[in-house]
Structures are given as C-alpha cells and as structure tokens.
C-alpha cells in the first residue's frame, strides 16, 4: 500500500524534483529528497497542514517563494522525467524511508558545515551536500 495517494503525473513531477534537487548526489541523495516530499504530504503540522498531494508539496509557496528552489531556478526541474528517476519516486511513494531523511521535513545545501538547528528544528543528519532536519520532539507526531 502506498505511503500517500499518487497518480502517474505525481510520479513524474516528483521524479523531476528529485533529479533537480539532488542528481549530483546519486540515487540515495534523490531518494532522501523524495523522503522529504512524501513526509510533507503525509504530515498535518507546522507549515504543512494543508498539503496532501505531491503537486501541492512541490508548488507550495512560503514567504513569497516556492519551497523548493528548483521550481523557480531549476532548468533540470523543467525537463521530462526519466524512467530511472520515476522508479526512485515510486520507491519513495511506496514507503521507502531511511535516515537521515526518514522523518525530515526540511533540507538545504549550506556553504559550510550543517548547523545544529535550522529555524529551530534539530539536525537529523547529512548526506553529501545536503543537511536534513526533522521536527523538534512533540511538535509533529504525524511524521513518525
């Protein structure tokens, strides 16, 4: 059973985002980005209370900007999804989760070391260039 409901267009959209955000980090890096997308669609807390689909997560606007930089600036995002990336997206959507992004709702690529918190949320781990953050204990039980 899938982790969240999805369509074939959701798979393609998510695959495009995973590639745009983490193609340089290989399959595992793209899967970690996929974890964050799925987690945001699953939870009902913090900035993600009204998101229930892959499309809503990817095109969410916060503070006047898209939550994912690749939507605004990513030429890779606007290219057609490839079959390999779609396979990775389906893997996420069908419940693949792994540390450090297993419960993460945020990630970013800093210019230096990963800070211990990001906007008050605790650091859960790093994979290559991306730092992952999950909600502080007790603030978002629906992610766990």
Report on this model:
With 144 residues, this protein is an alpha+beta fold. It has helices at residues 8-22, 26-42, 54-58, 69-73, 83-93; strands at 61-62, 65-66, 106-108, 117-118, 121-127, 130-133. The strands form 2 sheets. Strands 3-6-5-4 form a 4-stranded antiparallel β-sheet, with helices on one face. Strands 1-2 form a two-stranded antiparallel sheet. Strand 5 (121-127) and strand 6 (130-133) form a beta hairpin. The longest helix is centred in the first third of the chain and has 17 residues, at 26-42. The chain starts with 7 loop residues before the first helix and ends in an 11-residue tail after the last strand. The relative contact order is 0.21.
């Amino acid at each position: 059973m899938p982790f969240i409901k999805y369509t074939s267009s959701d798979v393609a959209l998510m695959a495009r985002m995973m590639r745009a955000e983490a193609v340089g980090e290989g399959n595992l890096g793209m899967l970690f980005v996929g974890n964050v997308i799925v987690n945001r669609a699953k939870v009902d807390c913090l900035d993600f209370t009204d998101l229930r689909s892959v499309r809503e997560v990817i095109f969410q606007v916060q503070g006047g900007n898209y939550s994912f930089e690749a939507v605004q600036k990513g030429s890779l995002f606007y290219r057609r999804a490839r079959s390999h990336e779609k396979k990775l997206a389906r893997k996420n959507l069908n419940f693949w989760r792994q540390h450090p992004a297993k419960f993460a709702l945020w990630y970013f690529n800093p210019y230096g070391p990963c800070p211990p918190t990001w906007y008050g949320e605790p650091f859960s781990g790093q994979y290559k260039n991306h730092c992952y953050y999950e909600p502080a204990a007790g603030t978002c039980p629906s992610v766990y």
